[in-house]
Every structure is written in C-alpha cells, then in structure tokens.
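Page 42, continued from yesterday. The earlier attempt failed because a stray header line got pasted into the input along with the sequence. Redoing it now with the clean sequence only.
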Amino acid sequence: MDVGHPAGATPSVRRETLVEIVGYVGVASAVAGTVTVFARNPDLSDGASLAVTLGVAAVLVVAGLAIGDRSPDAYQRMRSLLWFVAVESFGFASGIFWLNIVDLGLKTGATLAGLTGAVCSLVLWLMLRRSLQQIAFFFTAVGTITALAVPNGSGSPSDLNGPLLVIWVSGLAWFIAGTAEIVRPPRTARVLGAAVSLLATLEMFGPSFWLALTLVSVTSLALLAVGDRKEDRAVAGLGSLGSWSRPRSGSDAPPWIRKAPPWRRS
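This time it went through. Structure tokens are written below.
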C-alpha cells in the first residue's frame, strides 16, 4: 500500500491540469477570435469595435470571478492570465472610446484611456495579488503619466527627455517599493522597476548623452548593490548590463563618442 499518495490525489491533479489547459485554450481562442474579427472587417465601425473589445474583457473577467479563490495554484495562474488579457482588451476599448468615439485630442485621449485602464487593472490587482496583475497596473499607470509628460507637437530628440525621465523615476520608485516589500509580489516589483529604469536611461543617450551617462551609472550601481544584498541574480544582472552597455552618440556627446570607428567610415 502506498501511504505517500492518498486516494484520489492523482485524479485531482489530472483534473486541475485538464481545467488549466482548457482555460488557456479558451484565452487563446478569445484572442484569436478578436484578431480575426478585426482582420476580416477592416471597416468595422467604432461602436462595433468597442462592443467586441468590451465583450471580450467582460467574459474574461467573469470567467476569472467564476474560478474564485480555489486553493490549487493552477486555478489561480489561469485566473491571473484571464484577467491580464482582460485588462489588455479593456485598454483597447478605452482607446477606441476616448480617441475615436469621443474624438478627443491624441494627448488627452491617450491620457484618459490609460487612466481608465489603470483603474481597471488596479481593481483586479487588489483582488488578485499576482505578478501579471502588478505588471498590468504598472504599465497602464506609467503609460498614463508618460502621456501627460509628452509635449504637444514634439519632434526633436530633446523632447523625449521629459517622458524618459518620467519613466525612469517611475521604474526607480517601483524598484524601491519592491525592495522595501511595500507592493506584492515584491520580487516582481523589484525586477520590473529595475528593468524599466535601466532601459529608460539607455534610451536617453540619443537626446542627452551626459544626463544619460549619469543616470545609467547611478542606476547600475544601485541595482548591483541591491542585487548583491538581496541575492537577486536578475537585478544584479541588470546592473551589470547597465555598467557594460555601450553608449549611443547624442548631440552633446564628446568627439571620441561621436566619431565613427575606422571600419564604419566611408
């Protein structure tokens, strides 16, 4: 007699796996069906597009609610994915509503669409504290703040400094919140904030070389220190990546950076 496996344990595991597979297939089918509707109907009206995207979001949210707080982690992973895709679909619906139907300007419409999506993702994250819900809220919230920082009629590379600084500050703040374990799950916040803040500084090399060099140096040192203290290889790896990244030349870069290497000269 096998005392290590209670009767009924194996069928239960198989049932959970089967339910999880069916759920993932359902999510993939919903996404594929939505894409097919828009691909085959390029002239679909704004009202119909809004109805389709809202309908998909509503179905996915209700499906997640139906799963509830069941104990097997497989069910919670599926619930998390359902709600993550629901936020994406709701974000598309918000963009259609504010930009096309209400017909606001690009900056105002994008800000309101991001704000609406951020509220939706925040509610779902408060209901389910998992990584995908945190990621959805972070990007919708940062996208909203960044839309406010984009200047009207931007065209020159220097106009990107403001939005990139906003992204860097947002990533750094999220990194600090994760390190202090203010948000859950904390490691997701730590790695997500580290990656976003580092990428923002690397993108600044085009508009402003010296500002980017200063920020990428400070950010990389902070990531290396925290990664070592927390024994977080992902954060430490991002810090090492920032330390060894090759700067791109900008308008204020020194001559030894702007000068092309011999093999690239014409």
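Notes: Residues 150-266 form one domain.
Reminder to self: strip header lines before submitting.
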